């Protein structure tokens, strides 16, 4: 019997990056492709050339080099976050990849900066897209790259001429590198930021998600937690990157529940990680359980995000922890009481963060109406999701109707996300430099919010680099969530979004989950604590619609697995099928078997109805079925017919009258006359044996009496003879 328990691509030189409309978020397949091909691209923007061909080429926005391609890839990116250092110091990294089977001869690289700074973000978009909008260049440095061997890569740093930047006015300057090879010319573009000592300082709020990735179980397993919190694990990298910063943490509470639910069996690295999270002073808020997709839930008709319920049902065997000594640290609850399983420390309530680009006016309106313990919600959206005046689009705190919004900058956040995904140093530097450029072109008098956004392709080094860049954007000082919320909001209007095929698939899947959950909620009434089934099921549902699954080709299997798991639970309790029973007598109990594959005992009522009046049954029989076992149930039956067939209909129900399993019809073969015949035969046999016994006893006694009489006569005869002989002897002697 089976027990059922609850249980990238480098940056192309185009701006703006297309918004992640639903179904167009970076997927795992594209992430894997990016990791494989990044060694060829190395950085972005970059240029590629075929292995043969002498025509100069400029490819400001190259696509991925197809597997087996022999195109040469060249990339340039400035270090130091793309910010010109004191005295005009700038160092750029140059990288060339030659996948061809022949070597690439040495070639010169010339680096130039634009004569004038880019005035607006639109100008920056145009420069990165096609190199337009630049009014001449100033030479900044040159070098000769050595021969690149066949299927080899060369990366070198190049210090630029400080004089080219020392006297440049503050601003964002175009930076271009041209690589001349026998096969043609390749170019790569980026930017540098020249700062001024007297420029105004604005504020920036950095939001960092702390998530565990795509899983199908209600909670991360012990092995998964051990891997995630290991020195090279993703959760470890996320926490290390935010330690010592004022970044706002968006924490998936399922991680804390998973660690606490394991109790003493939790990996040591996981418990240490949770202790460290709670000790951090950073402001924070809880994501929805499993970082579930909010837009999918609203699209399926929910008016508020689905609650997982009482999370203690996820750890039914966990012994209560002792009450700790009252303490109050910056990151703790400060109450001195046992933290709840899902506690992530002192967190801002009712903060909702849908995936970037996934919500429009309908979803924002619904989320804006959500309250938690009478606290109004704050919804985080990317700036591309907000329309209206430039002031509204750039404001970090806004209102759309009744919805309170925190608007994070799409351009900067996208660049930071790409930095977190980068698998090469040049690609990472290019993305970081771009984030600095877009930040420098924002209004310093307006608070700025940025996010190191969710991504399944984030690397440990990339996360650290992206957060370091976000917390050191030029002309910005870091502030927390509460400071940003204190800023008076501006009016804004959310953009409209149109659901695509992927959106429809997610909404359909979630709708099916909800239908299954309704059936499970009815079924769970057989338990003393229905939450032991319903809470784990909701937790798995939220995990499967988690944002980490977007673009993952295994999502369809995850959906099928969740539905199959629920179906198995619904089939875990049933009457063992039987089609025919023989009843030898007018009354006797009929035995049936209830199978319970659940890990919990269940309470049931067996309803039995006769098919005709010739048979009388006990209509209700209470059943207490133990966990993971089969339980025998006896139903008293009385037949009013000597011989024949009768039908019984049986149905298991919960104490609340919910049908459990399918109904079962049983044919009862009544053989009541066999009982009478058996009694007669047995009586005859017993009577016969008694008569026979009496007769044998009488005969034995008579035979004994006859034998006694015969023995007396013989004795007398013998005595007389003896006497006669004796007398004769005496006479003779005389």
Automatic annotation (TrEMBL):
Domain of life: Bacteria
Segments of skewed composition (Acidic residues): 707-716
InterPro entries: DUF6049, TAT_signal
Keyword set, alphabetical order: Membrane, Transmembrane, Transmembrane helix
Basic residues bias: start-end ranges: 14-27
Chain residue ranges for the region called Disordered: 1-27, 702-734
Name of this protein: 2-oxoglutarate dehydrogenase
């Amino acid at each position: 019997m089976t027990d059922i328990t609850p249980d990238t691509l480098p940056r192309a030189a185009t701006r703006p990056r297309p918004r992640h409309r639903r179904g167009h978020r970076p997927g795992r397949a594209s992430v894997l492709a990016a990791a494989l091909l990044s060694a060829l691209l190395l950085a972005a923007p970059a240029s590629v050339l075929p292995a043969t061909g002498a025509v100069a080429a400029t490819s400001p926005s190259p696509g991925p080099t197809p597997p087996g391609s022999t195109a040469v890839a060249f990339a340039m990116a400035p270090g130091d976050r793309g910010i010109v250092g004191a005295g005009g110091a700038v160092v750029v990294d140059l990288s060339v990849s030659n996948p061809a089977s022949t070597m690439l001869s040495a070639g010169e690289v010339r680096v130039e900066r634009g004569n004038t700074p880019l005035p607006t973000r639109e100008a920056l978009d145009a420069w990165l897209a096609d190199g337009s909008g630049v009014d001449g260049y100033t030479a900044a440095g040159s070098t000769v790259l050595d021969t690149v061997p066949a299927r080899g890569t060369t990366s070198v740093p190049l210090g630029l001429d400080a004089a080219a930047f020392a006297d440049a006015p503050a601003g964002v300057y175009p930076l271009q590198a041209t690589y001349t090879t026998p096969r043609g010319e390749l170019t790569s573009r980026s930017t540098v930021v020249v700062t001024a000592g007297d420029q105004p300082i604005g504020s920036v709020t950095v939001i960092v998600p702390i998530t565990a990735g795509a899983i199908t179980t209600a909670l991360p397993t012990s092995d998964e937690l051990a891997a995630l919190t290991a020195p090279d694990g993703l959760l470890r990298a996320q926490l290390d990157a935010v330690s010592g910063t004022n970044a706002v943490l968006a924490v998936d509470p399922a991680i804390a529940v998973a660690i606490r639910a394991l109790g003493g069996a939790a990996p040591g690295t996981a418990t240490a990680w949770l202790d460290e999270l709670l000790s951090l002073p950073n402001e924070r808020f809880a994501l929805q359980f499993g970082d579930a997709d909010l837009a999918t839930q609203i699209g399926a008709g929910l008016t508020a995000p689905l609650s997982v319920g009482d999370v203690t049902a996820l750890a039914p065997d966990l012994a209560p922890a002792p009450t700790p000594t009252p303490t109050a640290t910056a990151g703790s609850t400060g109450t001195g009481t046992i933290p709840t399983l899902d506690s992530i420390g002192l967190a801002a309530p009712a903060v909702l963060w849908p995936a970037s680009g996934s919500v429009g006016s309908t979803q924002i309106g619904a989320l804006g109406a959500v309250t938690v313990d009478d606290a109004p919600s704050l919804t985080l959206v990317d700036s591309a999701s907000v329309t209206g005046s430039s002031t509204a689009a750039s404001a970090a705190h806004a209102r759309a109707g009744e919805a309170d919004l925190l608007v994070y900058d799409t351009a900067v956040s996208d660049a930071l996300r790409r930095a977190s995904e980068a698998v090469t140093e040049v690609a990472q530097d290019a993305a970081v430099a771009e984030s600095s450029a877009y930040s420098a072109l924002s209004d310093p008098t307006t608070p700025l919010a940025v996010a190191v956004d969710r991504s399944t392709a984030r690397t440990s080094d990339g996360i650290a680099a992206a957060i370091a860049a976000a917390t050191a954007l030029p002309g910005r000082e870091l502030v927390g969530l509460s400071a940003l919320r204190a800023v008076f909001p501006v009016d804004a209007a959310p953009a409209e979004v149109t659901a695509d095929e992927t959106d429809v698939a997610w909404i359909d899947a979630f709708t099916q989950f909800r239908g299954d959950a309704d059936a499970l909620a009815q079924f769970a009434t057989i338990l003393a604590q229905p939450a032991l089934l319903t809470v784990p099921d909701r937790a798995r549902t939220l995990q499967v619609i988690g944002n980490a699954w977007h673009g993952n080709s295994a999502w369809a299997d995850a959906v099928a697995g969740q539905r199959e798991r629920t179906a198995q639970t619904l089939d875990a309790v049933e009457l063992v099928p039987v089609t025919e029973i023989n009843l030898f007598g007018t009354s006797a109990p009929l035995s049936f078997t209830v199978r319970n594959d659940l890990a919990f005992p269940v309470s049931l009522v067996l309803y039995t109805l006769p098919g005709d009046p010739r048979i009388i049954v006990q209509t209700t029989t209470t059943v207490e079925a133990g966990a993971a076992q089969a339980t025998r149930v006896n139903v008293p039956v009385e037949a009013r017919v000597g011989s024949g067939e009768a039908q019984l209909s049986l149905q298991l129900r919960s104490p609340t009258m919910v049908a459990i399993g399918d109904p079962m019809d049983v044919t009862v073969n009544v053989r009541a006359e066999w009982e009478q015949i058996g009694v007669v035969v047995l009586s005859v046999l017993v009577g016969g044996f008694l008569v026979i016994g009496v007769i044998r006893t009488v005969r034995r006694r008579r035979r004994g009496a006859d034998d006694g009489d015969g023995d007396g006569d013989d004795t007398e005869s013998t005595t007389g003879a003896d006497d006669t002989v004796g007398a004769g002897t005496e006479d003779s002697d005389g």
